[in-house]
Design a protein that fits this description.
- Helices cover about 55% and strands about 0% of the residues.
- The protein has 3 helices and no strands.
- The chain starts with a helix and ends with a helix.
Length: about 70
């Protein structure tokens, strides 16, 4: 499994939330088995810096750029 991960990591260049999506895209492209694993997030009590509108738009734009790159 490590060998498969090492094959796709060079294509995963995002530093943000899009990294997980890139990882899934390239895993599927390499015909690797993809599974969902539940993760429990525990709040630190601090206010989140995530902006649904701003960060959501950035995520959508990253997906569009990745799709164009794969054409």
């Amino acid at each position: 499994r490590k060998a498969e991960l090492e094959k796709i990591l060079p294509f995963c260049t995002s530093k943000g939330a899009f990294f997980q999506i890139q990882l899934a895209i390239y895993a599927v492209k390499q015909n690797l088995k993809v599974a969902e694993v539940p993760v429990e997030f525990i709040s630190s009590g601090k206010k989140s810096n995530f902006s649904l509108v701003k960060d959501g738009l950035v995520l959508i734009m990253d997906m569009v750029k990745e799709r164009i790159k794969l054409l």
